[in-house]
Structures are given as C-alpha cells and as structure tokens.
Amino acid sequence: MVLAISVLAGFQNWSLAKTKVFWLAAEYLVLLPVLILILIGAYRPEHKPPAPSAKPRKLLPLLLFVVILVPLAFALDRGTYQGDENAYLFQARCLNSGALYTDQPKGVPLRAITYDHHVILNGKWFGKYPAGWPLVLSLGTATHSAWFLNPLLGAALLAVTFKIGAELFGAETGVCAAWILALSAFFSLNCLGFMSHVLCGLLIAMAVLCYLEFSKRKSEPRSWAWIAGAFVCLAASALVRPFTAMCAGIALIAVWNIRWKWSSVVRFIGCGAMFAVVVIASIAIQNRMLTGDYRRSPYNVNGGALREISTSPRDLMESLIRTTPRRLVDTGSVAFPYLYLLAMYGLWRRRRERVVWALALVFVSLVVGHMVETVDSDAPIGERYYFEGFFAAILLAALGWLQLIKDLRLTAPVSRNVTAAVLTVACTITIMCAYWETGLRWPSRQLTNAAEHPPIGRGIVFVEGYDWLPPWRLNFNKPGGETLFVNDPGPSQRAALAKASGRPNWTCLYYDPIRKAAAWSEITSSAP
C-alpha cells in the first residue's frame, strides 16, 4: 500500500507534505496492525531466538549508502535548495580567494545583491555563519568536488555510529543501526547538498565515541587524552553550529558527570573550560574581522534580539503545541518506520544503563533546544535541526528492534518476513524522497552549471527568479570575478542598473521549466 501511495503521489504531482501524511497513515493504520497480528500468531514461549551470525556483514550498509548516494550527489552536482547552502558556498569561495569576505560591488543597489543569510557591512560582503564548515567546504570548491564532501562525511558518520553501537551493545546492534541509517531517507538525503549538519553530527558522534574509549581506559595513565579528544570534537562542532553544539554538549556533560568523584569533576570542568575559551576566542576573532567588534556577530549585525530566537512564553507555547509536534511528525515520516516506538522500547528495556540515557538526551536536547527557534528550517526531508542527534535515536531504535525480536521469541522465518516488510517501506520512502529532492535541486543545478560559463566577460547577469526558486537564494558571484550576478530588477530597470554598475554589457539567466534547462537571453549593451 505504501508503494502504491508513493507511486500515485509521484504521478499525481501531490505535495511532499501530503505524501508524508499518507506514508504515516499507511504505516500505522495498515502495516502496523498487520505486523502485530503476525507477531501475536508467531509467539512461541518455548522457542529460543536465532543466534546472530558469527560474521556479520559490517560493510554492506556502508557500501549500500555510498553506492546509492554518491551517484545521486554527482548527478545533482552543485544543485542547492536552501539559501543557507549558497551562503556557505559563497563563504567557501571567499576563503579560496584568501579572505573571509569580498568587497561590495560598487554602483549596485543593495536590493540587487541581497541574498539570504548574506551580510553587507562597511563595504564587506560575506556570509553570516561561523567559518568552521566553510573552511572544510572550501576544500571542495577549490577542487570542484564540493558535491562529494557531505556524502563522504555521511559515510564516516555511519561508520562511527556502527562503532558506538558495537562498543556499547555488541556488533549485532552496530550492524542493525548501520542498516537503519543506510535505509533512512532522512539520513541519506540530508547528506546531499552543502549544509553543515553532517559535519556537526559527525563531530558530536565522535565526541561520544571518545568518551566511550575514555570509559574503558579510566585506569590507564593517559586515559584523559580521550576525554580531551571529546572536548576537541565538541569545540569543533561549536565552530560549525554553535547552538546545536551547545545543546548536545550540555546533555553529554550532564550525563558524564553523574556519580563522578570530585577530583574527576574538577579535571573534567577544567578541560571543558579550556576548549570553551578556544571556541569563544575563535568566534570573537571572526566577529572582529568581519564586523569590527569582537562582540558583534554577523548573525545580528544591527543589534537587538535575534529574530530567529524567542523565549517569550507565547512563542514557547506555540512551539510546544504546534511547531515541535509538526517537526517530530515530519522527521518520523521519513526517518524509518516506527523509529520513535522502537527507540522508546530500547530505552525502556535498558533504562538502568546511564549511557542509554546519554544517547536519548543527545536527541531530546536538540528537540527541546530548538523550541526557541521561531524561523522555519525549510527542510524538505524531515527536520534538519534534529539531524545531529539522529544517530543517537537510531542506536536506541536498533537496540529496541533487536530486543523486541528477542523478547517475542520469534522464529527466524517470521523475523525475516517482518524485517523484509519494514525495510520495503523504508526503501520505498527513500526512493520517493530522492525523487522529490532531485526535483527541488535540479533547477539550481542547471543554473549553477550555466553560471560557470557566462557568455559575457566583464558584464552583468540578471538572474531571474520564480516563486519556487527566488533569485535571492542563488548567489553565483566569485570574489574577483569579472562577471557580476544580481537579482533581476525587471525589464524596465536592467539598462539603468547595468550602466550604474559600470558594466554596460548585460544578459539574463533563467530556467526553462519545459526544457528543464538553464537558458541565456541575448547580450545587450547600454553603452552610448
């Protein structure tokens, strides 16, 4: 039924949100009752659960993830959907030129070069985000392989998740978690594009892994190198996504300190304080270089309260009642069938273990922390604000899945049939989400590739926009480039703007929805 609904949604051109509602309805109202009946009929109190394979195929989930995602990422190349991605890419190109910013184009009105999440201040033109992810992304923009970075980081995150699961609960749980990640539309398709969530999630997962290694070696003289490594990862994540790192870091530190000796607590706090100083100093230096003030952040150059953050009781209640439940449902619809139910079952069955609560708090901290976020994330496949803690929820779900099979004492054939049904649903959702993601990114992919080879040299290109692809999401400019790309002001103002900018030759770049390709208008000169 899920497959039929998905195919129907594709042919009938339904919205992605509408399709997700039908997916959830099919999972919980049709598939779940059938699975429950199968499980009840298959219950055998005297039967022992099948023993796990002595040689689990650890690399298969990773290979599946790479084989599916890398060709898709290559085909979409530099196709973007969100304005954040273009801000990150612009920052990376600035770093490639040797600076955090580029000069503001002269003679061009601000409205023509106003882009989402970009800042123009005191003649400087830059993106508003910390330099951590743009610095890594600049390696890709310099080598024309930026499309490959997030799939590569996603593969590393999958491998680290397997390692954490194997260290905590055994190799079988690690393999199960890896399979769930590889077949999750939310995980795999958020590893496309140029957002910073994958790197931040990898760093937080590595912080958890470092702490696990420290826990195993507490009695060794150099065991504190591992806890220092955990703080290095948390500090690095703070230079990528500060608010996310703060939420996850507070959750981890709170759990790590429970039942510790005071001497250990003091050393722990001292190590954390040292890296906190490094993070604060790094952000302050970037602020000084961009805004001229150590305390003035590019996030809010005009001062006052951040418009994205609100702690007023009215906004918090709105988030609690409407926004957060919608985000959770949106993520659950594309994450993995019954993810929340399986994670809660795994948490309940192993509730006496502190590390299980640590994993739960990593995910919950992002849900609770982003209740103060008032601006829609505009994430097409699930709620991207929760991505960094998704690996922890997956580990709990894998634990719950295997524990449920063990508790129900299922026979091997029944276990395989139930697994096949759930995985079929997961694969169907992933395929359809990939279809939607491709449709969202294809127009900008075509425009970006066309912008790489403009038909004019020193001139101006007016980028036409649409309701579904506004031009202020697409910044194709390169620091020091001859061609200037601006938002199209309309036919009546093009000649005047080109003349004022000192670039009399101009053309238009637009997307042809019929041909599904970028196109150029004729080159026009406004020179006398």
Topology:
Layout: H1 2-12, H2 16-42, H3 60-76, H4 83-96, E1 102-103, E2 118-121, E3 124-127, H5 132-143, H6 146-169, H7 171-182, H8 185-189, H9 197-216, H10 224-238, H11 242-256, H12 262-291, H13 313-335, H14 339-349, H15 354-369, H16 390-408, H17 412-451, E4 460-463, E5 484-487, H18 494-500, E6 505-512, E7 517-520, E8 524-525
Parallel strand pairs: 4-5, 4-6
Antiparallel strand pairs: 1-3, 2-3, 6-7, 6-8
Cα-to-Cα separation, first versus last residue: 66 Å
Number of helices: 18
Count of domain modules: 2
Count of beta strands? 8
Mean pLDDT: 85
Structural class: alpha/beta
- Whole-number radius of gyration? 25 Å
Describe this structure in words.
With 528 residues, the protein is of the alpha/beta class. The chain has 2 domains: 2-73 and 146-439, no CATH class; 77-144 and 453-525, no CATH class. Helix content is 60%, strand content 6%. It contains 18 helices and 8 strands. It has helices at 2-12, 16-42, 60-76, 83-96, 132-143, 146-169, 171-182, 185-189, 197-216, 224-238, 242-256, 262-291, 313-335, 339-349, 354-369, 390-408, 412-451, 494-500; strands spanning 102-103, 118-121, 124-127, 460-463, 484-487, 505-512, 517-520, 524-525. Strands 4, 5, 6, 7 and 8 form a 5-stranded mixed β-sheet that branches. A 3-stranded antiparallel β-sheet has the order 1-3-2. Strand 6 (505-512) and strand 7 form a beta hairpin. Helix 1 (2-12) runs parallel beside helix 17 (412-451). The longest helix is centred in the C-terminal third of the chain and has 40 residues, at 412-451.
